[in-house]
Amino acid sequence: MNYKIFSEPFRNLITAQVRKIIAEIDSQPDEYFDSVPIEEFSKYLKSKYTLDEFPTLIWEEIEMKIGETEIYGRDFPSTFDVSNPSEKFKRKLVVYHIPIYGNVGLLRFSPTNGYSTSGIYGKLAIRNDTLDVSFIDIYNQPEKVDSDFDRTKNAIAGKLNVVRGEYEYYHKELPKFIDGEIKKRIQKINHTNDYKSKFKYPIRKKEVPTAFESPRIVKKKKISPKPVGASNTVTNQRFITDEDYMHILGLLQDCGNNWEHHPELYKGKGEETLRDQLIFVLAPNIEGVVAGEAYNKKGKTDISIKHESTNLFIGECKIWKGPKGFLETIDQILGYLTWRDSKAAIMMFVPNQIISGVRKATEESAKGHPNFVRVLDVINEGWTNYRFHIESDPRTYVTLAVQLYHLPEL
């Protein structure tokens, strides 16, 4: 899908989100709030209305394309002496291609206040996961085109930083807003119940279900692999979308959280048993082939989700034994990956009584690994997504999630 960059203020998105949240809270029957844990409903709403990852433009991976185009004489600046405005002239068309990582759709939003197109000289277009900045070289001066692109680049980066600030503020305020709206609804219900209690005759009860269930935070989801390449290219290669990847990681994280709250589920169990529990969580929730101990390139991966013969996701489960073992696990999983695999995860079981030191050690070790490229996201204190390049090709990148599960009674 194509988007027009900076076409509407970010406020429009936030306003729409707020309306949806309030509507969903208000749509629940009064009895719902007596039947489910409020924290669970709040968690569900926070998960549902969290926006996808903010897009990042990978400026260091810019590629150019130079071709030709035709323009009418009437479109030249007034400084040109063109006798026939309808005459066409050939000029060089210079296009800068900037890769985008994250939710491309968010690029259509501009800063809410004080937005202008000043400083943007080229024509902007988003195609798939790339921002194209095009210039017609009217003066036949490549140096001027490069200079105009640099100014455009700075203007785009500045505007995106402002939008990112609004994006981060939304997520900072989201939990407080949701909890506040739930509290308002409960107060309204209590006020209504108090009013009803003042009548001496019984109030006719509504016909409602005998039991309510909160919306499931984890929902069954079909993993739909997407073909690699342009739409007119026939290919058997497939990849997993960021949305599906985060869904899988969310299922794993929920299982880890459950262990942390209920030690009896993991106490006395080994690495393989815990891995099997993760597979048991994934299998019924994903319409794909979920396998344990699956062969992949140099060995057997603990968890593998496949589409036909293609790996969409691979994961390794390990008990924390220090930075050296963690680095060996990164080496191991990168060694498993081929150029067709783009997403993987390490699920680290931490038996230490204090986990803060382990968090710091994993972060420092990951950044010190020779294949490390950058940190993509810190989802929470025990879950970080990194970008690495694969073992055999420094220009082929993969996403590697690291999740820590605090299991001191392991």
UniProtKB/TrEMBL annotation:
It comes from the Bacteria. This is Uncharacterized protein.
